[in-house]
Amino acid sequence: MIGGGRVRERFPVAWTLASGDTQRDIDEAEQMLAARRHNIFKLKIGKRTVRDDVQHVAAIKQALGDRASVRVDVN
């Protein structure tokens, strides 16, 4: 043990959704939520137009609602 012992039981890790297909990414996120594996999702964006990326992210967040946190990685 370093520093006096365990501080956390869990450490949150984001699951990357990078298919680029909105419905496929929603389905994958739903599977992770159902399995209770992840509730933080990172979306890879930047290859499409800004408008398309915004629509993609918004659709995923709307589908997942408050059950999940959605973040973006632009590159």
UniProtKB/TrEMBL annotation:
InterPro entries: Enolase-like_C_sf, Enolase_C-like. It holds the Pfam family MR_MLE_C. This is L-alanine-DL-glutamate epimerase-like enolase superfamily enzyme. Residues 27-75 form the Enolase C-terminal domain.
